[in-house]
Amino acid sequence: MASRKVGSDQEHGSGVVDDRPAKRARVEALDSEEEDNSAPQVAPQASDLYLDTINRAKLDFDFEKVCSVSLSNINIYGCLVCGKYFQGRGRSSYAYAHSIHEDHHVFINLESTKVYVLPDGYLVNDPSLEDIAYVLSPKFTKAYVQQLSSKSTPLKTSYDLTQNSYLPGFIGLNNIKKNDHMNVIIHALLHVPPLRDYLLLGSFKGKETELVKRFAALAKKLWNPRLFKSQVSPHEFLQEVGRESARNFTLEKQGDPAEFLGWLLNTLHRHMGGTRKKNSSIIFSTFQGHLRQEQQQIVVRPDTDTDAKPQFDIDREVKTTATPFLFLAVDLPPPPLFQDAVEKNIIPQVSIYSILAKFDGVTAQGNAGILKRYKCQQLPPYIILNFKRFTKNIFVEEKNPTIVNFPLRGLDFREYLDAPPNHPPTAYDLIANVTHESTAGTTRDKENTVYKVHLRASGTDDDWYQIQDLIVEKTRKEMIFLGETVLQVWERRDVTSKEEMDVDR
Ligand SMILES: [Zn+2]
Fold this sequence. Notes:
CATH topology of the largest domain: Cathepsin B, Chain A
Domain UBP-type: 46-143
Pfam families: UCH, zf-UBP
CATH architecture of the largest domain: Alpha-Beta Complex
Largest sheet: 8 strands, mixed
Number of helices: 13
Keywords: Metal-binding, mRNA processing, mRNA splicing, Nucleus, Spliceosome, Zinc, Zinc-finger
Structural class: alpha+beta
CATH superfamily of the largest domain: Cysteine proteinases
Strand content: 15-25%
Protein name: Spindle pole body protein
Radius of gyration: 28 Å
CATH class of the largest domain: Alpha Beta
Number of strands: 25
Bound molecules: zinc ion
Shape: elongated
């Protein structure tokens, strides 16, 4: 491989190329307390001394950046020979000890991406290490990011170290324990262009919270066109999710993708400095819409037919509230309770339009003595729909197996909107679809249950990928309709066409 330099003929360790600067560097390493502020010698001859020992196949930088010995997260170096993390590089440090005990000599500072040879303490400046720094900390140009949304330019295939081809963005995420319900949300959100572009183009090296930094870092890895391995582990991000959510969402516990999504959107919004105001964060400007809710107390009159659906009484007061939303929860019709032998194998189906009738401002729903009806007042550029498939009671969680029929393009929300003048178009195209699979009779708590996500690739009209943790497959459109959808992301028509114009200009 062209980027790998073969080291000098001299033996590693004892036969140092030039004794004098090496000694100077050692002294410096000894004295330096604040290692990263020191400016170690660059040893010109030593720059390629150990570079042939670097093993790129062992590197992925996906795991939480803590010392494998001290568990500290301060001043961590990655050994480029074995991939392990160690704290510090001074004489009493764990990285220094590792260099002597294991005879591993090349270390990268995980924060600054600077590479050092230990125990000598040389700073190595070598262009052949640039690919490693890029995997650790990918950087994107505006032109590159704009191309990701372009309809005229298909996404470019990349190749990893072992020459496996992959499409950046459409790569597997490790299911470390039981985090498939979080993986599908990560994929769905990181395919929403405004949010994706914001995360890819920002540097996130400043005062941002750890959650925001790690989410951005994950976005950059997922879309990295120069990965060593064509898969990414969300470990570092999910560790922070566990801490930030007080262990509500952990990779050890199967959970509900929609609950995780709700938590993540609200937390990211807050961490990005968002307030209650419209467009006060990229989360709000991308996903926030407004809904009008009308409600009325249900009064049961003795003379009325108790089987009749409760209706709004025009003579009584209707309480109206305006509610912002980040996603719309929709209900599936209850499946038939009893099926005869003939119908047994027929899976109940419903059109997405009849589900969305919840928001037509007319259809009323009664619950706990309150009658409610809804209508959208403002639709966001991206609409997230959550299909409520699970119902809990004290004893058991039940899954509604109803299949939802929907178009892939041109879902029109006009009927569910009191469109103010100058409201943007109301036609939306599907960009992400999350499904749940389990064998009959089981629910998501059981072992044999899995979440998958379908993602549309830009560049063409028809390319869809199905991702289930590490399994990435190009899929036929027809397959998307067969799953039990739990969550969808819809993109407003004008959003992409506008970006398209920006790219062409
Ligand atoms: Zn090592």
